[in-house]
Design goal:
Length: about 200
């Protein structure tokens, strides 16, 4: 029963216990498997063994990788995705972000073939401007924060205005000093300075 449940979960997650027919699998000395699926004209990534540590996908016909493909590959840390005709629209974001987190060296290997705005760019240089279909998403996200930004700007203007008013009041305020608190000589000097200020 438990074994059947495990197999069902593996099947549902796109993982398998066996080597894909189009690939060559070799056990590594450290642990895990090297799965070589290169030069097979693959148009999609096959179901991979759960112990895959190194994956070679170079020289195929891959254009994209569906989100979640590598999510259950906890041992996977080395991937070669070079020499594939990657289509760099919004759908390539999953692969780009996964490589950034787990296999940064492959970011320079993967290069876009289409669309023309991103042709020959490595994944590491992709930004939202090149990724077609993501611009609308970014505009929606910006719209969500529009009111918050306006409120912050209004608050900043209000604070600056209050500071300006307080500064103006401080310059216009006259502080009266009780002369009886000072000795006679100090009172004379204080009166003299006050008279000089009035004559200015």
């Amino acid at each position: 029963m438990m074994w059947g449940l495990a197999l069902f979960l593996l099947w549902g997650s796109g993982s398998t216990l066996t080597c894909p027919p189009a690939c060559i699998c070799q056990p590594l000395e450290t642990m895990g498997l090297l799965v070589d699926c290169s030069h097979k004209w693959l148009q999609e990534v096959p179901a991979l063994p759960i112990g895959t540590s190194k994956l070679y996908l170079q020289n195929n016909s891959l254009t994209t990788i569906p989100p979640g493909t590598f999510d259950n590959m906890h041992n996977l840390h080395e991937v070669d995705v070079s020499h594939n005709p990657w289509h760099c629209d919004c759908g390539i974001l999953y692969l780009k972000l996964w490589l950034e987190d787990y296999a940064r060296d492959a970011l320079e290997q993967g290069r876009c073939a289409t669309p023309a705005t991103a042709a020959s760019l490595p994944f590491s240089q992709l930004t939202g401007n090149e990724l077609e279909g993501c611009k609308q998403l970014r505009s929606i996200q910006c719209h969500e924060f529009l009111w918050r930004d306006l409120a912050l700007i209004a608050l900043a203007v209000l604070v600056v205005a209050l500071m300006a008013i307080l500064l103006w009041i401080a310059r216009r305020t006259t502080y009266w000093v009780t002369l009886n608190q000072y000795p006679y000589e100090a009172q004379w000097q204080l009166r003299k300075s006050l008279k000089q200020q009035k004559t200015k």
